[in-house]
Task: inverse folding
């Protein structure tokens, strides 16, 4: 089903598709639900039913090498990376049996009680950040709030001392830039140095927690139980932590931004949520469905597979589009409408499904709910600044505003 007339997915990176990819997805679902994109060298899967089928069949659709880049980093960058630890699979790019063992360890470490216990600290952080910019009445909220908050929460979870959180913020920013590519080589080298510094920092933290465990995620990962197999090595632990970081940081930032945009498109939504904050958890879930922060993920076929009538060869690289599945009219009523009380939100695939289902979903929901509670309480009649159009990340996996300029009346 490689359809020459299929609207090519490459358009996804151009205006107006970059700002609103959903009409293109709709066309694809109708005209070429599974097609080979010459531009991406990937098979693109767009319907809910087919995306679910891929996620439910990890034996045929492998996650290994999900992030393999077609362009190797320049030698200057490789030289810096060689001073760090080897890059091993994390969870999202691992398959059984390695994935099964690692996932069991991370699930235990990310226990609901540990995540739930973070709520007061998240509220405190969000309030402190809001104190800094809300009285100004206008700000670029991605850099002031949406980006730093999840970075600090991950820092807290891992047990980093507060004094190190600023360093962590810089490393985080650099590592995101490095994975996004498209930087001058000198900047890539700087970002690679940050990555290596982060690895060495984590190695030191791991050693400390081996000596003196505390009540944090790093200590919980270090202390494997006998039934979980031999203790994890430094490189394994560092890669797990990096995976948590990559899986959990940018996605949460983008969910915050996407949700803010969604609420401000129709101003009464902000007020409705402030009047009835118990609706927030449902609004967060609907935001994940309607403007999915992680738009898709890659798989590779272990053997030739038939999917939704298409024949995929062995070794086919496949992009499953959660963002498209979540707008499929075959699954969701009036899929393009933001409806907090819709009955079918629960069927969304914004956190994936099956054995790779997001391990940070509880934390993401908690962070975004608390962050929005703080903003709802502090900002009156927020709106987009008219002279500052929203610029979206030019990225086909991560969707969210790169910058979001808002203004409001402080309360
Ligand atoms: C709004 C925020 C988030 C979204 C939309 C999101 C989305 C996803 C999705 C779609 C997957 C499945 C990927 C696949 O099937 O290949 C996933 C996996 C994962 N997520 Fe999240 N995530 C979010 C936040 C977080 C947070 C805060 C953390 C960690 C603290 C986290 C940790 C992970 C991990 C470890 C996996 C891999 C699980 C596995 O492969 O077994 N995520 N996430």
Result:
């Amino acid at each position: 089903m490689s359809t020459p007339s299929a609207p090519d997915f490459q358009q996804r990176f151009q205006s107006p598709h970059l700002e609103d990819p959903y009409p293109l997805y709709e066309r694809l679902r109708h005209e070429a639900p599974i097609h080979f994109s010459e531009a991406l060298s990937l098979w693109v899967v767009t319907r809910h039913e087919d995306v679910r089928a891929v996620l439910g069949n990890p034996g045929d659709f492998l996650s290994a090498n999900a992030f393999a880049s077609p362009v190797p980093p320049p030698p200057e960058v490789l030289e810096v990376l060689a001073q760090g630890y080897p890059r091993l699979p994390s969870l999202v790019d691992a398959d059984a049996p390695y994935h099964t063992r690692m996932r069991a360890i991370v699930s235990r470490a990310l226990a609901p009680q540990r995540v739930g216990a973070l709520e007061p600290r998240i509220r405190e952080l969000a309030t402190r950040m809001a104190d800094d910019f809300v009285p100004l009445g206008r700000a670029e909220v991605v850099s002031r709030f949406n980006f730093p908050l999840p970075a600090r929460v991950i820092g807290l979870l891992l047990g980093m001392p507060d004094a190190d959180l600023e360093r962590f913020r810089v490393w985080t920013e650099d590592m995101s830039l490095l994975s996004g590519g498209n930087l001058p080589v000198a900047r890539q080298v700087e970002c690679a140095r940050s990555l290596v510094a982060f690895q060495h920092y984590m190695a030191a933290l791991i050693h400390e927690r081996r000596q003196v465990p505390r009540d944090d995620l790093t200590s919980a990962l270090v202390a494997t139980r006998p039934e979980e197999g031999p203790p994890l090595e430094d490189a394994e632990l560092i890669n797990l932590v990096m995976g948590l970081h990559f899986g959990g940081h940018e996605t949460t930032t983008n969910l915050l931004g996407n949700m803010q945009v969604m609420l401000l498109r129709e101003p009464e939504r902000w007020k409705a949520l402030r009047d009835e904050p118990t609706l927030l958890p449902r609004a967060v879930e609907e935001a994940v469905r309607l403007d999915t922060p992680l738009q898709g993920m890659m798989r590779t076929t272990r053997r030739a597979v038939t999917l939704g009538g298409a024949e995929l060869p062995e070794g086919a690289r496949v992009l499953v589009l959660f963002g498209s599945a979540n707008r499929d009219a075959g699954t969701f009523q009036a899929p393009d409408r933001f409806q907090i009380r819709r009955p079918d939100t629960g069927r969304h695939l914004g956190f994936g499904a099956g054995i790779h289902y997001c391990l940070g979903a509880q934390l993401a929901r908690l962070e975004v709910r608390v962050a929005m509670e703080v903003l709802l309480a502090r900002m009156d009649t927020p709106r987009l600044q008219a002279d500052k159009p929203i610029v979206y990340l030019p990225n086909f996996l991560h969707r969210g505003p790169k910058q979001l300029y808002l203004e409001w009346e402080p309360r």
